Amino acid sequence: MPVLKAAHVEATLRKGGSTRVDTAVAPKFKVGDKVVVRNLNPLGHTRAPRYVRCKRGVVQRDHGVFVFPDANARGEGPAPQHVYSVRFEGDAVWGPDAPANEAIYVDLWDDYLDPA
Amino acid sequence: MNGAHDLGGMDGFGPIAPERNEPVFHDEWERRAFALTLAMGYYGLWNIDMSRYARERMDPAAYLRSSYYEHWLHGLETLLVEQGLITREELDAREAELAREGT
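YS: structure for the whole thing
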């Protein structure tokens, strides 16, 4: 097993631990697309927060291709896919009591989303 | 998994009060917990998502009572035991030893 030596600590920390990958994967969505977050309740790890499930938003940015956390946490490999910044209007998430002009941006993977 | 870690959007915990001039670590043990986690992660026996999931599986009531680096330490202990690098008995024995020493 590789051992982290003191001399390599700084370079390792500077490199960071991004899960971005170079795999060529076609995006399911493009900027401006209307999406809805799937009603997912997996027993394992997920990075789809509960408060945006079943909520509608709009793709604001395509961040590129990343390892899919749900599969990766199960040790099932990277299952690489696009990650988007999705904008949700405040009232779409919190209903009529949401503060005016509020919006939330959440980074979401392809497998969390359906077209809306 | 729906657990105590998925706190987004809950207002019952009260407002978030950001600390002024927040230090990177609040205590020396936090620095060590962080370093240990990164050093052990370098072994390549688990990935970042497994690390997060290990923290999320902490007992929900304990999770809400503990600090950020306590979550990290707990997650690391879970991974070390699950990967067979240490046993739960070894961990418990060392904790008891430290408690006797009063540290």
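YS: worth flagging: The mean pLDDT of chain B is 94.
IM: good catch. Also Residues 24 and 100 of chain B are 30 Å apart (CA to CA).
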